[in-house]
Each structure stands twice: as C-alpha cells, then as structure tokens.
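Below: protein 1.
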Amino acid sequence: MASDSRKTDQLKELRAERDKLKSQLRAVKESFSYRLGNMLVEAVARPGRNTVLMPYRLASLCITGFRKRRKQVHTDDSRRFCPVCEKWSPYFRKSGVVPRYGAKCPYCSAVERHRFFWLFVSRRTNLFDGKPKRMLHVAPEPAFERRFKELLGDDYLTADLSNPRAMVKMDVTNIGCPTETFDVIYCSHVLEHVEDDRKAMRELFRVLKKDGWAILEVPIMADRTYEDPTITDPEDRLKVFGQHDHVRRYGPDYVDRLREAGFTVTVIKVTDMLSDKDAVTMGLSSKKRVLHYCTKQQMAATISGSRQYRRQWVS
C-alpha cells in the first residue's frame, strides 16, 4: 500500500510539472518575439502569399499585444497619477538629456520637479487662497503658465533672458523691478545656467516682499557644489556639469548659498509629503528629490499653520 501511495504522489508531481511546462510553452508561443520570429521564418521559407500578408499580420500582432499590455497596466499597481493635470495614465514617458524613464506625464508633460512643486504649493502654501498676489515666474514652464495666468491674471509675470514666449526679457542678476515687488517667486532650474548665481540670489531676495515666499530649485547632482569658470567649451561642460549650458553642479550645500543671500530656507522632502506608495504612483520615488522653500522671515508662516504634510492622495 505504501508503494502504491508513493507512486500516486510521484504521478501527481509529474503531472503538475507537465502542466507547468505546458503553461510556460504556451506563454512563449503567445509572446510577441516568438510569433514575430515564426512569421519571418515562414516568409523566408515559403515566399509568396506569406510575404504579401506579412505587413497585415504584423500590424494585427502589434495591436493585439498593445491591447493586452494596456489591459495589464490598468489592472495592476503600475499606473501613474499626475497631480498637475490630475489624470491617471498607464505609465510616464522618458525625459531628459540623459533619459530618465518614467519621468514625463503624457498629458501635461510635467516631469518630477513639476509634480513635486505643484503638489507642495497646492497643499502647503497660500497660493490658492483667493487673495491677490504678485508672482514672478522665471523661465516659465508650459505646464504651469496657463493655470497661473487664470489664477492671478495681470499680477502674474513671466520672465526669461532668451525665451520669446516670456512676458519680459530679464537677467536674474539684474532684475529691473523695485525692491519688495513680488509675493511669490518661482525659479526652477535656472541658477545652474547663471555664472554669478550668488548675485542672482541676492536680486531675488531683494524683489521678494517681507511676507512673501520663493521656491528656487536647481538640480542636486553632486555631494558638494562644484564649479570652474575656466570651463567654457560646451562639450567640456557637458562632461563635467552634465549639460552643455550648465556652469556648475550643485550639491546639498546649495542651501548655504541661499542663506548667504539672506533667505530663511526650509528643505522639503518627498517623504514629508507622501507615503512611499503614493510617491511611487506619482513618479516621485527618488529619496534625493527636495524642494527649497525660501522666505525673509525666521518661520515660514504659510507652512507652520497649515495642514499635515502626509496625505493619502491616491490610495
């Protein structure tokens, strides 16, 4: 009896292994690469009708594969949510000089820094409280221009040194505005292009009102800030600074330069705002990503009395 029971168990194991192999073989035969390879072999081995029909069969194969993939991404945890346009998508697209996969929203083109900024200002500042505010937006991003224009009207000013789309031409080292003009300043990924960034920071500090706030962002790409004014060739700058028109690599000590200009700086991390799950869903999973909230006061009033940082946006 023991021998019969052992044989029965072995038979069950063999059948389970057989079913597993059949399932794996079926998956291989249904895969895009296998079916495409099979089509090419048939076209070469038996030219004629197979060759004529091949474009149609290939198109059908691609459509079928796309539908299966779309169904898959909409039923698992890989979907992405953009807080800027408030839309869900199967994935974020690649973006950047050095491509970053899963970076750009396919609807509004917002990348990581845009999503983090919008998440912060919409939940943690007074920008949307309905009160009049004068805002300076340096190097305006298309993802925000229309929204800020609708929100602030004539109190919204865009500025750039070379972009013809901006309202005014402006050098951030010599801002042609009176002292304490703006309630809000947003300047993102600009200072790494400016040779005298300390002078630009002092100018931004000058035109900010006493009770105003600014978000001044740069790419943090090094352990310590590195710059070399003798490097002027675009190819050399690309190798050393990561982009042909950058003049330095910033490190976490960037905050010291802001404080030297007079700002009180609060460094906001993604983990201060979101749970790990929501950060991944919004494509903000990088632990190095921070946001620099700058004021002229010792305490950021618009932060201290507002809602809690951590909030389940999408779960």
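Below: protein 2.
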Amino acid sequence: MNISKNEILLKGMKLLDLLLLVTSFGLSAWIAQYQIDQVPFEELVTMRMKIQNFILFMSIGGAWLWVFSSFGLYQSIHNLKRKYQSLGVLKATTVGTLIILIDSYLFEIELITPVFICLFWAMSNILGILSRLLIKYLLNRIGSNALSEMTDTLYTKKEFMQILEKERIRADRNNHNYSIVLFSLDRMKPHDNDRSMLLQTIAGRVRKIDEVGWYDNSRVGIILPYTSMLGACKLADYIYNSIENISKMPSCEIYTYPFDNRILIQEKSGEEFIGIEAFSDQ
C-alpha cells in the first residue's frame, strides 16, 4: 500500500506532539519540583521510572493524541493554512491538561500540583503553536513547485468526500447553494510542469472558505461555498487564462447544488470555451 506524503507528514506531527508533551511535562516538573516538599530532582526521575507511572504516562499520551485528533488537528496538512489552527491547539491542550489534572486526583499523583498544571498548560500551548508555525514556514520554504507536487496541500479522496457531505448538509440547513469545479489531470504526469502550474494556479486563486482535494484518482476538486454556476465559471475562466500556455489543457466539469446543473468544459481557446455541454442531471 502506498503511503502519501500527506500521511507521512501527519504521522510526523503526531510524533512531534508526543515529544512536545514529554518536553512540557519534564520542564514543568523540573520547575515545579520545589513545590513538592523539596523532593530532589534525582528522586523525581527515579519515581517516574516506575512501571506503573510509565503505563500511566503512556495512557496520557494516547489521550493527548486523541484530543488533538478530535479537534481536527490531524485532518490534513492543508489545515496549517487556516487561522483557526492556533485556536485548535489552544482548545486541545486545555482539554488535555484537564485530563491530566483529573488523572492526578484519581491516582493521587503528588507531582502534579497547581503550579505544575499552570506551567504545563502554558508550555504545551506555546510549543504546540510554535511547532505548527515552524512546519508551515518550512513547507512554504520548499518552493511553489515542490509544494504543488507534494499532495499534502490537497485533501485525500476520503477527506474531500467528507467535506463535500458536510457542505451539502450545511447548504440544506441554511438554504444556500455551492458549486464544485473538477479539473481532470489524467493527461498529465505526476511530475509534469503543466500539472504543477495548474495546482499552483488553483492554490493561489481559491478563497479561505474554499476546499481543494482529490475527487478521485485523476480529478482535483474545488468546493466553492455560496457560489453560483456563474461564479464557478468565472473561476474556471481565470484558471484557464492563467495556464493558457501549457501543452496539455485539462478538461473541467462544474456542478452546482441544489440546482444540480452541470457544465462540461473540454477545452478553451482564446476568449471562448470549446466543447461546452450544459445540462441537468435530473
């Protein structure tokens, strides 16, 4: 089974969060050690090496990752672009800290004091937010071509379908429409410059509320909330104009919901679309 770069990076983020958990825990214990009846630091290390403490800490680590996952922090590398990423870290570390506090009462852990809890919460927040800002910076430094070819900026098929279903439910509830633009990459090789240019153009044009991901194995989809067929066609027109010099022009399909209209764009030449089919799937 092939593992995408997106999955590799997300697994790396989980390991990094575990490392930051251990770091925050250790530093907080070291600073707060004098609050525990002046217990020597050597004795603290020896105490935490006990098997039962090790098992307890492993369970805390599992709960920590579960909380982060529940707040959508491991959904996709694409989320690093979102402004709410830092807020998600803040919420997750707060809930995780509360779990540790509850464990301290249940298992009578003397090491965990109010001073420790405050220190741990602050450190885990700072390290968690800084780590994601650093990852985002490093990804941007890779370069636009490499970033486009690394599909970590795109949702997987499963993730994209989940987002699409949520958007459909939201549209039904709020009585608004949305559109989907699909670009076919079946004529483009994975490391083709034409493919890179197309993905770069899409990434530079979409709004913050839009979502980009794999619709299937050969088509990249753009979900456009609160967008009519006309608005989606304008986006497709912009993208076609931006990549008009590539050798293999992709075909494009546009759908709107709830009207269920569809436009199939086979090619664009000059100022006109060639081979357009507009019809209803009803």
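The CA atoms of residues 179 and 224 lie 5 Å apart.
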